Amino acid sequence: MIRENKRLLLNITAAKKEWEATVDAIDEPIFVTDFNYNILRANLATYRMLDKGVNEVIGKKCYEIFHCATEVLDDCPGKKAMDSGEPVTDVMPFKGLKKRLNCSVYPQVFAEGGGLVHYLHEPELKPESQAEMMTKYERLFLDAALPVLLIDLEDYKVVDANQKAIELIGYEPESISDKDLEELFVQRVREEVMTNLIKQIEGNSATLKTKILTNDGREVDVYVITNAVVIGTRRFGEIFVIPVDSLK
């Protein structure tokens, strides 16, 4: 009996190592939680994307690590999978990762109890969605006579900027992409600007006169006009940045 138990333990240990090696070879984040959202296991891609160590992830609530939240989100695919007992896939923003991802969740039963396997991967655009997005880009950027920024309304990062905006702000295209929007404004007005932009998107505020901060440190007086646009299935903020001097 002792010999059989030892052989069984060796087989289980070998299977565990094989599973971990296989999952660690996958480039996309995969992690396992229990039904209380505590992270039990994670592959190397998860730690790399979070830029955190094992002790900073294992045992923590997934919504704290991935969403910077104090409780489970209402639209959590893990909650949906647990309630339905079926796999669920949703595209959602991950504040802790500062990006939107597909989150596929699979309810599982393990030897030590039940849990949820999470698989995070980049959303795939259908060809028609890509064509639609390019058409919007051409209209918003290539043909715009005014400086225009496109921002992600989930994390308020710059997605793109037209040539007029690049010339005004002085950043190279690759430097401005994924930049926090508030960093483009003078520090003392950033809170006011962000509050106003959110209200403009909601239709509750008028044009704002403020100051942007160029790449070489100059302060430029501008008017900012913001509205929401839909590209494909996503909402973005379209921001017109109009220098005050250009209106004189």
UniProtKB/TrEMBL annotation:
Residues 15-67, 133-204 form the PAS domain. It comes from the Bacteria. Pfam families: PAS_9. PROSITE patterns: PAS. SMART domains: PAS (SM00091). NCBIfam families: sensory_box (TIGR00229). This is PAS domain-containing protein.
